[in-house]
Amino acid sequence: MGAHSVFLILVCVIGTAIVVHGQGQAGFISIDCGSPPNINYVDTDTGISYTWDAPFIKSGVNVNVSEEYGYPKNPVLPFPLADVRSFPQGNRNCYSLTPSDGKGNLYLIRASFMYGNYDGDNALPEFDLYVDVNFWTSVTFRNASENVIKEILSFAESETVYVCLVNKGKGTPFISALELRPMNSSIYGTEFGRNVSLVLYQRLDTGYLNGTGRYQKDVYDRIWSPYSPASWKSTMTNGYIDIFQSGYKPPDEVIKTAASPKSDDEPLELSWTSDDPNARFYAYLYFAELENLKRNESRKIRIFWNGSPVSGAFNPSSEYSMTVSNSRAFTGKDHWISVQKTSDSTLPPILNAIEIFSAQSLDEFSTTTEDVRAIESIKSTYKLQKVWSGDPCSPSLFPWEGIRCSYNNSSHQIKSLNLSSSGLHGPIAFSFRNLSNLESLDLSNNSLKGFVPDFLADLKLLKYLNLKGNNFTGYIPRSLRKRSVDDGLVLSVDEQNICHSRSCRDRSRILVPIVVSTLVVVLIAALVVICILRRERKIRAYSGPLLPSGKRRFTYSEVSSITNNFNKVIGKGGFGIVYLGSLEDGTEIAVKMINDSSFGKSKGSSSSSSSSSSRVSKEFQVEAELLLTVHHRNLASFVGYCDDGRSMALIYEYMANGNLQDYLSSENAEDLSWEKRLHIAIDSAQGLEYLHHGCRPPIVHRDVKTANILLNDNLEAKIADFGLSKVFPEDDLSHVVTAVMGTPGYVDPEYYNTFKLNEKSDVYSFGIVLLELITGRRSIMKTDDGDKMNVVHFVEPFIDFGDIDGVVDARLRGDFSSNSAWKFVEVAMSCVRDRGTNRPTMNQIVSDLKQCLAAELGREPRSHHEKEACLIPITQLKV
Ligand SMILES: *[C@@H]1O[C@H](CO)[C@@H](O)[C@H](O)[C@H]1NC(C)=O
Ligand SMILES: *[C@@H]1O[C@H](CO)[C@@H](O)[C@H](O)[C@H]1NC(C)=O
Ligand SMILES: *[C@@H]1O[C@H](CO)[C@@H](O)[C@H](O)[C@H]1NC(C)=O
Ligand SMILES: *[C@@H]1O[C@H](CO)[C@@H](O)[C@H](O)[C@H]1NC(C)=O
Ligand SMILES: *[C@@H]1O[C@H](CO)[C@@H](O)[C@H](O)[C@H]1NC(C)=O
Ligand SMILES: *[C@@H]1O[C@H](CO)[C@@H](O)[C@H](O)[C@H]1NC(C)=O
Ligand SMILES: *[C@@H]1O[C@H](CO)[C@@H](O)[C@H](O)[C@H]1NC(C)=O
Ligand SMILES: *[C@@H]1O[C@H](CO)[C@@H](O)[C@H](O)[C@H]1NC(C)=O
Ligand SMILES: *[C@@H]1O[C@H](CO)[C@@H](O)[C@H](O)[C@H]1NC(C)=O
Ligand SMILES: *[C@@H]1O[C@H](CO)[C@@H](O)[C@H](O)[C@H]1NC(C)=O
């Protein structure tokens, strides 16, 4: 028993029955979709007042059904079906219903559809319905005159209930009528409470004789369909049955007729098959005794589902209607309900009415209210002519046009908004700032004007911002430019909003005094800070026992001492953590501890010393000793190494300005001129050139990247981390290795196919480094789709369009020789050619880069004032 569904018997107490006959149509929303403007009428068949639909929806077009199906040829056509609203535009169109009972209550929503060849295409469409963000049902037609009616019982989650028609590519959605009725929220309970909606499967008036079974008879305006199979007979009563005892309130005419089996010992049976084996059904059965039972007569009933007894026996009351329902869902494909008399019952079973619903889970989430509020405000501010209705992000297959969202298990967020060519005018609305999850914003090709607001920089996740093709005045605020430097924000703006020398000139005169005085203050402050930092660093570096310089092989405890017990981390690389250290003579050094599971790096721990692999250690020693013989001014000096069986470490000279990757994404890069960038490029090219062509045997670096190019005090570049490169024999320039080496974004594509690394692989990686230098971007950047984009793909379109300004880092503010930049891009692109054999050698690259430098040095010098004026953020320009 326990495993079977348990029936709830809602027994009702007889009380002082106050018969409140219908509050009329209070709370009803009855819409004749597609009707002519300002039409309100009472349908003579039902007595229901219909209104036109424009107040409930902004999109779609009104059309009459074709002559063949409409008036006057078809005089019995219900009035609401004579016209439809169809939705050729947008894939989700929603009616907004605002029930007067407000949110949290249960509503019956009914949508009616008759195709009637309204579009003259004679093609039956198929589309989906949603209530708010949740799937309701699919609408399909058997023929053009079929009146398809869909009904759902649903709790309103908010003040507005959206009923959405979704175009799934199988014809244009349309609708004939839409109705909403307030229900008693205490009825139609399920084991899931308010977490499910009930989609009507069947509502049957069993034992039907006559009547409409609808509004005026039914306070909730349910539609009861007559049902009388041949093996059933009908009985009725003229006596009084109290239908108001429970909240279900079945209509009098429905409850006053009942079906019973023609042959007294037979049960009443109903069966159906579900397409969905996981469907969950709830049945609500209505009973009332219609006969005057004699003393020796009794009617006792039990209900079975799929052959299992699932209710206790009960006697229908002759005084009131009772409703019996399953508290656990009927699940499975095949369903068979049987209403039987008990063995001690003298009379056959009866059934007055039955409703069967399938449960629809409410498992979609909505967009966060902040995002909804912001996007609605944008929509109304700019009076957008878009099919934007219902929830912006949900259902996830059909978000609003131009919107993309992130979906997770709580609520959805708008992460991308494309309002390109959407007729926006006026200033950028503040509401954009409230879309706090935005990663991509495309406002291009509108008529926006005014200043570019700096609140856009508050959008912390923004990675892409396109403002091109508008009428903005002034320049891009510093805060935004800073974002493009620090966070890799891809900023597309019009020429006149970029701070170029010419456009800045007219403002420069007034601004110079402010700029100069500000700069002086900043400079002094900076100098003071630098001096303090210098002193602090010296003091720290000299503490602890020191080691003699000139030594090359160190023990773990020496390394620990050099680094003052691993006191200061200055970097984290692919191989391990880098610590600052200092030799006896005060030379600052960088100690890179090599990560290896068998080499515990933790301070003082003397754990797994014996378990270290001697093979790894041996290879490491051989390489380290060899590297000690490699010297070039553009290679980071290798001071020594540590390999005492417990730890492996590489010890380099310390480079004050860190690595190029960090430098390019720091505040410092603001002052990194084109000329300085060219010097860095040439320095690193020379370092690689030496490894490839100056060493015997040649050394392939195998991990060339901006993070492995270090900058000293004077911004001279040195290549680092070739310590872990493989040394190749001279006669075998390409070498097969098995594990994938290198860093994503820099790896030679040819390597993936051949697993061969050679000098040309380094050349490919170096091409990426050059592109990072000129664009100021990372080798792999994120696009607005959340997809990753290689810097090569980023620059390609600009190169195709001959747009060098699009390629060059905005922080240079146009201050570069375009000849030099073009030449540089050419060199970089030749390095990243698909086939290694088509790439230049490092010799060639060094000489080409020197030409770039010559071109830059040969151009007209610029005035100082123009540069400074560019630093002033837009907000100050207004003063
Ligand atoms: C539909 O028919 C009605 C009356 O027959 C007419 O007044 C109305 O203009 C028609 N609507 C459309 C969209 O053609
Ligand atoms: C259209 O389909 C409905 C439902 O199957 C059916 O009752 C009706 O007779 C059909 N009408 C025509 C004209 O085929
Ligand atoms: C139904 O929703 C309530 C919260 O509204 C939740 O506490 C409950 O666990 C849910 N029940 C089921 C069966 O999902
Ligand atoms: C319905 O049927 C009953 C019994 O046959 C009859 O008395 C009653 O007048 C009928 N009502 C209508 C509206 O036809
Ligand atoms: C709603 O239904 C409940 C339970 O059946 C009942 O107690 C209550 O009186 C009903 N409310 C209304 C307004 O009918
Ligand atoms: C009940 O009693 C009546 C006489 O009052 C009799 O005619 C009828 O057969 C009895 N029915 C049963 C089931 O015993
Ligand atoms: C889902 O989004 C919410 C709202 O931002 C966030 O707090 C939560 O961490 C996200 N959950 C997952 C699993 O991503
Ligand atoms: C949501 O949760 C379900 C089950 O917990 C999991 O299978 C699914 O991947 C989650 N979806 C997201 C977007 O986090
Ligand atoms: C925005 O939409 C336009 C076309 O409507 C498209 O050209 C453009 O690439 C889109 N922008 C983004 C960032 O996807
Ligand atoms: C921009 O402003 C200029 C001058 O005010 C005007 O001629 C032009 O039409 C405007 N462009 C747009 C796209 O609004």
From TrEMBL:
Membrane topology: Single-pass membrane protein
Chief location category: membrane
Main EC class the enzyme belongs to: transferase
Residues noted as binding ATP in the record, renumbered to the chain: 592
Name of the protein in question: non-specific serine/threonine protein kinase
Keywords for the protein's UniProt record, in alphabetical order: ATP-binding, Kinase, Leucine-rich repeat, Membrane, Nucleotide-binding, Phosphoprotein, Receptor, Repeat, Serine/threonine-protein kinase, Signal, Transferase, Transmembrane, Transmembrane helix
Catalytic activity: L-seryl-[protein] + ATP = O-phospho-L-seryl-[protein] + ADP + H(+); L-threonyl-[protein] + ATP = O-phospho-L-threonyl-[protein] + ADP + H(+)
Subcellular location: Membrane
Organism of this sequence: Eutrema salsugineum (Saltwater cress)
PANTHER family reported in the protein's UniProt record: OS07G0107800 PROTEIN-RELATED, PROTEIN KINASE DOMAIN-CONTAINING PROTEIN
Residue ranges of domain Protein kinase in the record: 564-853
GO molecular function list: ATP binding; protein serine/threonine kinase activity
Record carries keyword 4Fe-4S: no
Pfam families in alphabetical order: LRR_8, Malectin_like, PK_Tyr_Ser-Thr
Lineage: Eukaryota, Viridiplantae, Streptophyta, Embryophyta, Tracheophyta
InterPro entries to which the protein is assigned, alphabetical: Kinase-like_dom_sf, Leu-rich_rpt, LRR_dom_sf, Malectin-like_Carb-bd_dom, Prot_kinase_dom, Protein_kinase_ATP_BS, Ser-Thr/Tyr_kinase_cat_dom, Ser/Thr_kinase_AS
Segments crossing the lipid bilayer: 510-533
Domain of life: Eukaryota
